[in-house]
Amino acid sequence: MNNITKFAVASLLGLTLLSTTAMADVKKGQKIYLKKLKAPCGFSGAKFAHKHTQDEWESINEAGKFAAEVKKLCPKAKIKAKYVPHVYDFAYEYAKDSGNIPSC
Asked: How far apart (Å, rounded) are the C-alpha atoms in residues 2 and 18?
């Protein structure tokens, strides 16, 4: 019983650490937009994020079409799959119905 408890606690701790590193970040998404997408898009991050509401961004992302939507809004832009969660968080945070305005 003691070994099972130790294993369970270790597993829980491991999963907790793994899940926190896998989370996306709004600030990282903003930096990615500035470095990788702003020039090909030709407009600011605020204008990009304001293309949709938070609900619209969420449904696009849940459908797995976020990268396609970026390509539709910015035909010259290329976004890597590893950047999608961060840029999505950025777009969601600064969507037109959020009331937030990014500094880029």
From this structure: 24
Best CA proximity match to 97, nearest among 54, 66, 45: 54
Three-class secondary structure of residue 59 per DSSP: helix
pLDDT tens profile 44-63: 999 999 999 999 999 999 99
pTM exceeding the 0.85 threshold for the entire prediction? no
- Is residue 33 packed enough to be buried (19+ CB in 10 Å), middle (13-18) or exposed (0-12)? buried
SS3 content of the chain, % helix, strand, coil (to 5): 70, 0, 30
Least confident of 10-14, 64-68, 70-74, 99-103: 10-14
